[in-house]
Amino acid sequence: MYQLNAVLAGYLTPADCAAAIKDMQLEEPLNAPDFFGRYHYAVKMYQDELAKKRRARDTQKQIVAARRGALHAVG
Fold it and tell me: In the predicted model, what is the mean pLDDT of residues 49-61?
């Protein structure tokens, strides 16, 4: 899931922008002291999840290939 930071989002009016920024959680502003640390952590977690899914797909492909190799033509 992606969430656009309120500071970066497009707004139709300045009032909409001000309201969105006012409603932001304290840890969301781009100038929060730990923003980049949290960002890099989130990127790493996402990359780890992609790698995990990739490994699972590769394992499944190997299982299917092994099954197909074990099949013999009858006829």
Answer: 95
